[in-house]
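User
Take a look at the entry that follows and flag anything odd:
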Amino acid sequence: MTGLKDLAYEKFEDGLKLVFTDDKFFEVVDFIYTTTPQNDTRLKKLVAAHLVGQKQIYGMHKSLEKALRARPELASHMICHEWKTDVPLEAVEASSQ
């Protein structure tokens, strides 16, 4: 199973170089964050890193804000990517309580 996950990750990573981050992309973001297990963060963090790099380029603020409100885990992953640290989501959730 790991080999298949690695291949899917690599293909998705390669595809990100060619994709325009528009509303259709946010459908993919939602799919990844709703179907990938909570503890399987590799693909989620790749999406977050892509969005961090693209957030100022395409004027996607409304779509990004909607995605961040719907998926707090995405917001956490984007912040962690920007900080270049790997803070577990549980720590972020615990600090907000």
About this structure: The first helix runs from residue 2 to 16. The CA atoms of residues 16 and 50 lie 7 Å apart.
